[in-house]
Amino acid sequence: MTNELVIQAENLTKTFGSFTAVDAISFSVRKGEIFGFLGANGAGKTTAMKMLIGISTPSAGKATVAGFDVSSEAEKIKKNIGYMSQKFALYDDLTVKQNITFFGGIYGLSRAQIKLKTAELVEELDLKEVVNQLVGALPLGWKQKISFSVSLLHNPKIVFLDEPTGGVDPITRRQFWEMIYKAANNGTTVFVTTHYMDEAEYCDRVSIMVNGKIEALDSPKNLKTQFGVENMNDVFLKLARG
């Protein structure tokens, strides 16, 4: 992790009619940081993420991602980030190899680069037995790990992960986080939402949103000290109860 800022938001706001989903949030994220973006359903974290990845225009405030303005340079942002949604981005009716080839093309990689990346993923994830199988036939844990690897194919500066470990067993969740650590150690910034409070402990810093506002932002250790509790779940509960 370095002091270089790759995400900066200042009073970022999103309204829908009279409803304010994201209420003037301000924060920054450093290069190589694992930044947890937490909040209950409806807290505004997904809406905020959509603005940061360039698919939703802010109603007010400003933000830059990878050096580009979210309001005026959304297409440039998309070329410099990776994104893994809750429902993943893989196509179930394509094989693992076909998915890698397809997304490599979307990300602008050459045929030679796609071939190299495919070989690297097959080796790294031990995909030899499944590389020619349809993704739809694979267990959920495999899909998640492959989807995360595909989101990194083009060596993005930042990868956004929206609830990446939902629905899998604890062992697979731990393996997934080992992949996140590796990406961060290689200089990729990881911006992750999760509803598993124990996963907040794995982040360098976390922000906690309540009703569209960031109510706490610091390292897990400092937040636990600040609120006088032993775990992040209790921090979250205290904030949720006001």
Automatic annotation (TrEMBL):
PROSITE patterns: ABC_TRANSPORTER_2 (PS50893)
Highest taxon in the source lineage: Bacteria
GO function terms (MF aspect): ATP binding; ATP hydrolysis activity
Domain ABC transporter: 7-236
Subcellular location field: Membrane
UniProt-listed SMART domains: AAA
GO cellular component, one term: membrane
Record's bilayer topology term: Multi-pass membrane protein
Keywords from the named record: ATP-binding, Membrane, Nucleotide-binding, Transmembrane, Transmembrane helix, Transport
Protein's UniProt name: ABC transporter domain-containing protein
Species for this entry: Roseivirga echinicomitans
